[in-house]
C-alpha cells in the first residue's frame, strides 16, 4: 500500500479496501480507461482529491480521485497496454524483428484471446503505421502459423488464441486440425501436419484421431463441398504414405467411394486443387470403375480445367491408353464439341502429347467454338483460347501444314468471313494463312471473294436494329467519349494520366466499330425471305431433321445478323448454316456428332 494512503487507513479516514484501490492509482502506476485507453498516473493531491493521468489519447488529464477509482482499472506494469506508454521503441523494434513476440504479448494482456479487429486497434497507428499494417499482418500471420504460438483464424469473426505453452508440437497440430471449423481451415491444418510429420512418428493414437476427424468431416460435407472433401482425402492418403503405424479402417470412406457415386460432378469440383492432388484423384478411377475407368475418366476430361485435363492425358498415356484418348479427342474435334480448355491443350501440346490429333480440323473446331461462344449469353468461356490464337504466331502455319488446297481454302474463307475477331486482328491472322498457303491470297485481294463484295444478306428487322445501334454509337457513345477525354485532359500531365489514356483507347474502339458498322450497312442486302426455293435448304427456309433413333430437330436458316441460337435460328454464314445449304430431302448431315437426315424443307415466310 502506498505510504500516504497507509497513514489515512491507520487514522481510520478510509477503509482498507479503498486504500488498496487508491494505491493502484498512485503516481507511477498504470491504469485503463474505457474511452481513453491506457494511462500512467502523473501526480495526485490526496487533500484536494485530484489526480493527473497521462492517457494514450489525453495527456495531463485531471480527474477527481473518486471518479478515477470508479472509471479506471489497474494495469500491471508488464501489461502490453502499459508497455505502449513506457516502451514504445521496444514494441516497434519487435514489430520489425519479432512480430510473433509482439502478438504474443498483446494476447497475454487480453487473457490469451482477441478478435482480429481488437488486435488491429491495439497496434495500428501506434506501434505500426496505419499504411503498413495490412502488409505487416500478412507477414506476421505466416510467422504465427509457422511458430504455432497462437491459433490463427481463417475468418475475422473468429478469435486469435494463444496456445498453451505446455502442449507438445504434435498436440498443438492435432488440436488445430480438430478445432478447424471449415474445410479450408482443415486442409491448411492437415498440410501443417504433413509438413511436420516428424512430431507424429510412431504416434498411432494421434494419427488415428486425425483419420477419424477427416472421415467424419467428409461424410458430413461431401455433398456441399465435394472438391474440398476430395482434397482432404488426398491429404489423408499422403499422410498414410508417411506413416508406419496408421491403418485405414475398413469402414473408412475412400476417394474411389466418392468418385464412383458422384460421376461427372467430380470433374466440375476439382478445378481448385493443385495438379498433383488432381492426379491422385484420377489414379483412383480404376479402383472405382474397374474396366470402364478410362471411359469414366474421359467423361470428365472436358470439364476439369486446364490442369486437370493435362493430368488425365498424361495418366492415360502412361497407362498405355493413348488410343482411347486420341479417339476421344478426334471424335470431339471433328464433331466440334471439344471445349476451350481442351482445344487450348491440344494446341500447346501439338509437338508433344497431342501431335497425333493436331491438324486443320483443330482450327475449324476453334473457329466454331469461338463463334458459338460469341453468340451465347453470359461470360465468355473461350477468351483465353482466342488470345492464344492471336499470340502464337506459328499456330496457323502448323494447323495448315497437312491440309490440302480445298481444306485450306475452306478454313481461310471461314476465318475471313468470321465476325469473332476485330478487323485488324483478322487481317493479321489472314496474313499468317497466306504466308503458310499462298494460294489463299485471292480471298484477301478480292479475286473470288464475290460474297464479300456483294455484302451479306439479312432481314430488314435486323438491319433496322443495326442502324439503331449505329445511331446510338454516333449520337450517344462517341459524344460521351469526347466529353470523357475533355474531363480527363483537365487532370493535367497527359504522360501519367491513366483516365486520359483509357478514354483515348476507348475512342479508337468506338471509331473502329463505327467504321465497321457503316461499311457493313453499306453493303448488306435486305430481304423478307419471301418466294424462297424450298426444293433444297436455302436462306429463309426451315429444315426439319431426324436421326436414326427418331430424335427430331428443327433449324431455321436466316440472314447474317438474324441468329437466335436458343431458338435454333442460325445464320447462313455459320458453320452449321454452310453445312445445311443446298441439302435436299433425304440428304444426311453431321450435327453435334449425330447423323441427321433432312425430312422436310419449308419456307420461313409463308406469306
From TrEMBL:
<dbReference type="InterPro" id="IPR036953">
    <property type="entry name" value="GreA/GreB_C_sf"/>
</dbReference>
<keyword id="KW-0804">Transcription</keyword>
<keyword id="KW-0648">Protein biosynthesis</keyword>
<dbReference type="Pfam" id="PF01272">
    <property type="entry name" value="GreA_GreB"/>
</dbReference>
<dbReference type="GO" id="GO:0003746">
    <property type="term" value="F:translation elongation factor activity"/>
</dbReference>
<keyword id="KW-0251">Elongation factor</keyword>
<dbReference type="InterPro" id="IPR023459">
    <property type="entry name" value="Tscrpt_elong_fac_GreA/B_fam"/>
</dbReference>
<protein>
    <submittedName>
        <fullName>Transcription elongation factor GreA</fullName>
    </submittedName>
</protein>
<dbReference type="InterPro" id="IPR022691">
    <property type="entry name" value="Tscrpt_elong_fac_GreA/B_N"/>
</dbReference>
<keyword id="KW-0805">Transcription regulation</keyword>
<feature type="domain" description="Transcription elongation factor GreA/GreB N-terminal">
    <location>
        <begin position="461"/>
        <end position="524"/>
    </location>
</feature>
<dbReference type="Pfam" id="PF03449">
    <property type="entry name" value="GreA_GreB_N"/>
</dbReference>
<dbReference type="InterPro" id="IPR036805">
    <property type="entry name" value="Tscrpt_elong_fac_GreA/B_N_sf"/>
</dbReference>
<dbReference type="InterPro" id="IPR001437">
    <property type="entry name" value="Tscrpt_elong_fac_GreA/B_C"/>
</dbReference>
<feature type="domain" description="Transcription elongation factor GreA/GreB C-terminal">
    <location>
        <begin position="534"/>
        <end position="599"/>
    </location>
</feature>
Amino acid at each position: 500500500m502506498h505510504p500516504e494512503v497507509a497513514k489515512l487507513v491507520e487514522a481510520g479516514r478510509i477503509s482498507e479496501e479503498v486504500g488498496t484501490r487508491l494505491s493502484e492509482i498512485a503516481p507511477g502506476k498504470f491504469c485503463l480507461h474505457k474511452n481513453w485507453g491506457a494511462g500512467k498516473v502523473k501526480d495526485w493531491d490526496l487533500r484536494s482529491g485530484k489526480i493527473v493521468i497521462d492517457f494514450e489519447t489525453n495527456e495531463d488529464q485531471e480527474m477527481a480521485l473518486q471518479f478515477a477509482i470508479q472509471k479506471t482499472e489497474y494495469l500491471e506494469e508488464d501489461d502490453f497496454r502499459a508497455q505502449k506508454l513506457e516502451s514504445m521503441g521496444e514494441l516497434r523494434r519487435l514489430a520489425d524483428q519479432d512480430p510473433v513476440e509482439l502478438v504474443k504479448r498483446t494476447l497475454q494482456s487480453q487473457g490469451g484471446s482477441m478478435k482480429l479487429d481488437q488486435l488491429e486497434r491495439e497496434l495500428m497507428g501506434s506501434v505500426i503505421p496505419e499504411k503498413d499494417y495490412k502488409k505487416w499482418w500478412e507477414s506476421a500471420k505466416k510467422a504465427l502459423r509457422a511458430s504455432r504460438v497462437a491459433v490463427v483464424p481463417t475468418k475475422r469473426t473468429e478469435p486469435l488464441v494463444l496456445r498453451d505453452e505446455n502442449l507438445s508440437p504434435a498436440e498443438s497440430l492435432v488440436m488445430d486440425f480438430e478445432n478447424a471449423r471449415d474445410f479450408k481451415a482443415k486442409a491448411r491444418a492437415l498440410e501443417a501436419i504433413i509438413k511436420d510429420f516428424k512430431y507424429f512418428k510412431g504416434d498411432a493414437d494421434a494419427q488415428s484421431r486425425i483419420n477419424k476427424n477427416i472421415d467424419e468431416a467428409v461424410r458430413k460435407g461431401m455433398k456441399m463441398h465435394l472438391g474440398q472433401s476430395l482434397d482432404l482425402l488426398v491429404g489423408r492418403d499422403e499422410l498414410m504414405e508417411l506413416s508406419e503405424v496408421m491403418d485405414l479402417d475398413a469402414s473408412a470412406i475412400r476417394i474411389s467411394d466418392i468418385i464412383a457415386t458422384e460421376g461427372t460432378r467430380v470433374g466440375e469440383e476439382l478445378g481448385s486443387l493443385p495438379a498433383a492432388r488432381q492426379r491422385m484423384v484420377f489414379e483412383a478411377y480404376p479402383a472405382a470403375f474397374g474396366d470402364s475407368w478410362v471411359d469414366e475418366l474421359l467423361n470428365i476430361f472436358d470439364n476439369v480445367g486446364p490442369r486437370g485435363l493435362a493430368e488425365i492425358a498424361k495418366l492415360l498415356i502412361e497407362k498405355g491408353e493413348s488410343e482411347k484418348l486420341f479417339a476421344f479427342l478426334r471424335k470431339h474435334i471433328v464433331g466440334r464439341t471439344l471445349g476451350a480448355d481442351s482445344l487450348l491443350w491440344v494446341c500447346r501440346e501439338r509437338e508433344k502429347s497431342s501431335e497425333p490429333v493436331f491438324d486443320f480440323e483443330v482450327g475449324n473446331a476453334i473457329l466454331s467454338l469461338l463463334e458459338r461462344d460469341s453468340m451465347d449469353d453470359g461470360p465468355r468461356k473461350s477468351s483465353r483460347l482466342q488470345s492464344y490464337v492471336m499470340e502464337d504466331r506459328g499456330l496457323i502455319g502448323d494447323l495448315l501444314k497437312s491440309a490440302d488446297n480445298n481444306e485450306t481454302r475452306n478454313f481461310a474463307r471461314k476465318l475471313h468471313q468470321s465476325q469473332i475477331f476485330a478487323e485488324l486482328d483478322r487481317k493479321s491472322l489472314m496474313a499468317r494463312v497466306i504466308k503458310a498457303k499462298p494460294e489463299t491470297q485471292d480471298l484477301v485481294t478480292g479475286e473470288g471473294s464475290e460474297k464479300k463484295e456483294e455484302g451479306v444478306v439479312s432481314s430488314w428487322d435486323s438491319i433496322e436494329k443495326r442502324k439503331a445501334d449505329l445511331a446510338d454509337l454516333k449520337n450517344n457513345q462517341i459524344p460521351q467519349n469526347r466529353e470523357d477525354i475533355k474531363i480527363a485532359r483537365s487532370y493535367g500531365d497527359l504522360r501519367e494520366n491513366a483516365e486520359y489514356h483509357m478514354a483515348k483507347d476507348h475512342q479508337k474502339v468506338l471509331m473502329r466499330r463505327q467504321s465497321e458498322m457503316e461499311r457493313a450497312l453499306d453493303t448488306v442486302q435486305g430481304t423478307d425471305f419471301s418466294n424462297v426455293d424450298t426444293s433444297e435448304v436455302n436462306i429463309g427456309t426451315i429444315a426439319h431433321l431426324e436421326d436414326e433413333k427418331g430424335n427430331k430437330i428443327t433449324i431455321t436458316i436466316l440472314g447474317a445478323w438474324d441468329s437466335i441460337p436458343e431458338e435454333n435460328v442460325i445464320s447462313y454464314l455459320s458453320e452449321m448454316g454452310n453445312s445445311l445449304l443446298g441439302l435436299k430431302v433425304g440428304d444426311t448431315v453431321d450435327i453435334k456428332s449425330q447423323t441427321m437426315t433432312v425430312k422436310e424443307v419449308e419456307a420461313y415466310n409463308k406469306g
